[in-house]
Amino acid sequence: MKVAAVVLAAGSGTRFGGDKARAALAGRPLWRWSFDALRAHPRVDLVGLVVPGPAVAEYREEAPQAAFVVAGGQDRTASVRIGLANTPDDCDVVLLHDAARPFPSEATIDRVIDAALRSGAAAPGLPVTDTVKRVAEDGVRTVDRDGLWTVQTPQGFRRELLVLAYESLRGSATDDLAAAEAIGCVPEIVPGNPDNLKITHPADLELARRLAASGPGIRTGLGYDIHRFSSDPDRCLVLGGVRFEGSPGLDGHSDADALMHAVTDALLGAASLGDIGVHFPNTDPRWRNAPSEVFLARAGELLKESGWSVWNIDVALVAERPKVVPRSAEIRANLARILGIPEDRVGLKATTNERLGAIGRGEGIACFAVATIGPCHGG
Ligand code: CTP
Ligand code: MG
C-alpha cells in the first residue's frame, strides 16, 4: 500500500496579512510542522509541496526531502489539481493537507488513511459543541447543531477516485470532500484532533505558539567560555558589558567579554543555531575589539527570526578576581536590555575556583550560562 501526501502552501494569506506558511513557529516555518509530521508518519511514503511560484527555488533548497516542490495555482482547487498531478500513479491513497494546519496528530492521519481505504474519501472532523446561530437581516435563529461537524485536513482519498472527482469538477470546491461528494461518493468523517487548528488570522498563530510551548517546545542551551588575562595594560576587563576599570583585561579578538560570549552561545545552542564562532568568526576583522553586546544582540535577533523568545538566562562566573557581585545589577540590566526581557529573568552568580587549577591561579576567567527559550510569534 502506498500513501502520498500533498502539503498545500501556495496561498497568499490575505486574512493573515502575509505568507503565513512561512511564519516562524518555534524554530520552524509553519509549513514545516505538518510536512515533518506527515514525513514522520510510518504509513506515509512520500510528501510533496505546492508553494507560491516565486518561492519554488527556496522551498526546493529548504526541503530536499520533498518528493516534489511545485508552483500552485490561483485558488486552492487549482493548487490541489497541480499537487495531485504530481503524485505517482501507483499510489493507493492521496492525503491533501493545508500547510496552515501545523498539528495533525499521528492518530488523526492514521484514521484518515484507514477511512479513505474503506470509503474512498475521508476527512477528520469535530462535532460542533457550541450553540450555532444563523445571523441574518431578518433576525437571529438557532441552527440545530445535531449532526454538524467542522472539518479539518488532511483529507484522504483513493487516488483514482480523487482524479475522477477533480476531472469532473467545474469551478472550485470549498474543500476536497465536496469534489468527491459531487460524483456521488459518500465520504467518511473520522475524529480529528482538537489542536489541529488552522492558522487563518494572526491570533491563530498566537494560539499555535501556546500549543507548541508544551512538551518539546521548550528548549535549554548551555554556553561556556574562558579567556586568559592579557598582559596588555591598555585592555580593560569587560564582563556582561560592564567595564571594570583598574582590573587587567582579558585576551581575545573582540573585547573578550567571556560572560557575554557564554550567554550568546547558550542562546544559539538552545535554538540549534550553531555557535558564536560560526556567526562571528575571529578571523573576521569586523569583530576586532568589537563590543560583545553586538554578538548577543544578533543572537537575540536570530532567535526571534526563528520563532523563539527568551524565557530566562542564568550565568555562573568563575573568577578569583575582581569581585563581580557588586556590579551584578548592572550586568543583569545590560543583558536584559540587549535581549528585551525583564531583569528578573536574568540570573547571575559568581564564585572563585578555590585557588584550584588555572582559574584558581588567577590566569583567566571562565563563565557558564544556561538559557531557556520557548516559541514566540516571530513575525
Ligand atoms: N492554498 C494553496 N493555493 C492557493 C490558495 C490556498 O495552496 N491558491 C493553501 C494555503 O496555503 C493554505 C490552505 O490552502 O495552506 C488553506 O487555505 P487558506 O487558509 O484560505 O490560506 P490562504 O488562501 O493563504 O489565506 P487567505 O484565504 O486568507 O488568503
Ligand atoms: Mg484562502
Determine the N-to-C terminus distance.
Answer: 40 Å
List the bound ligands: cytidine-5'-triphosphate, magnesium ion
Instruction: Determine the mean pLDDT.
Output: 95
Our count of helices gives 12
Radius of gyration: 27 Å
Helical residue percent? 25-40%
Uncertain segments = none
Topology as a string of helices (H) and strands (E):
EEEHEHEHEHEEEEEHHEHEEEHHHEHEHE
SS content category: alpha/beta
The counted number of beta strands is 18
How large is the share of residues in beta strands? 25-35%
Report the major sheet.
Answer: 8 strands, mixed
Shape: elongated
What does this structure look like?
With 379 residues, the chain is of the alpha/beta class. The protein is 30% helix and 27% strand. The chain contains twelve helices and 18 strands. It has helices at residues 30-40, 56-62, 76-85, 106-119, 159-168, 176-181, 202-212, 258-270, 276-279, 293-305, 328-339, 357-360; strands spanning 3-8, 24-25, 28-29, 46-51, 69-71, 93-98, 121-127, 132-136, 139-143, 149-151, 155-158, 188-191, 219-228, 236-239, 242-248, 308-318, 346-351, 364-375. Helix 8 packs parallel to helix 10 (293-305). The longest helix has 14 residues, at 106-119. It is elongated, with a radius of gyration of 27 Å. The chain starts with a strand and ends with a strand. It binds cytidine-5'-triphosphate and magnesium ion. The site of cytidine-5'-triphosphate has 22 residues, from helix 3.
